[in-house]
Amino acid sequence: MEPVTLTTERLVLRPFRPSDTDAVFAACQDPDIQRWTSVPSPYERAHAEDFTGRICPGNWRDDVTYDFAVVTKSDGALVGAMGLVRLAHLRSPEHQAELGYWTARERRRHGYTGEAARAVIEWAFTRLGVERLEWCSEAGNEGSRAVALGAGFRMEGTDRARIVHQGTRRDAWRGALLPSDWGLPSTTPYLPAKASMAANAPQEEQEEPEASGRGRAATAPSVA
Q: CB neighbours (10 Å) of residue 4?
């Protein structure tokens, strides 16, 4: 896919560039980013160079991940990274993707990540045809969960041992957002479990009197 740029009131979401290498390297020195995300740990400058110069352009080209550098409109400072990941089912009947993000320490608690998330979500629903957008993070990542909840994701539970991080399997929190949660249409109609169960429930047998009027009719005729 050709890379796109999205804008919000305060932010520009654009593809990463080699000129972002220093800012990415600095941000990813944060222990919290290394603790809660899949970035390498320790994070070296070569990792940042590879991410901005090779990985991100390749991900867009090959429809692997749509990575955005989130920067401020006012001065172009890097706020963080946001992307649509796990795109294998985007162009299948499932029409699914997953939202992932990290935020530079000094840019947290300003509402930037939520603002960027809403822009990517709208783009995913209205331009890409996403019909189920997932969020997943290691259990305990309260900051990421707060952003997801603020964007309207509904928590669906805890997946045991879903994430492999630093050589161990970790439980993961999982949530999902549907176009209908935002009042948007979906190409494939959604039949919630309650409605599906009601539609498939067996109908109660109706009592029909026998011709003689002596009670319930037999379920099948007898043969003499």
A: 13
**What element of type H or E holds 26?**
helix 21-27
Give Cα 118 distance to the centre of its chain: 12
Tokens representing 201 are 């429930």
Of 103, 65, 75, which is closest to residue 10 (Cα–Cα)? 75
Residue 36 tokens read as 């809660």
Q: What is the pLDDT of residues 189-221, one digit of tens each?
A: 999 987 767 666 666 554 554 444 443 333 333
Beta-carbon contacts of 54 under 8 Å, excluding residues fewer than 6 positions away, are none
Nearest to 102 by CA among 89, 85, 90: 85
In whole angstroms, what is the distance from residue 46 CA to residue 62 CA?
22
Q: Half-sphere exposure of residue 119, counting CA atoms within 13 Å on the CB side? A: 23
Angle CA(153)–CA(71)–CA(50) in degrees, nearest 5? Answer: 95
Please name each of the domains of the chain with its CATH number: 6-134 (3.40.630.30)
Instruction: Determine the Cα–Cα distance for residues 28 and 224; give it in Å rounded to an integer.
Output: 86
Query: pTM of the prediction?
Result: 0.86
Residue 41: CB atoms within 10 A of its CB come to 15
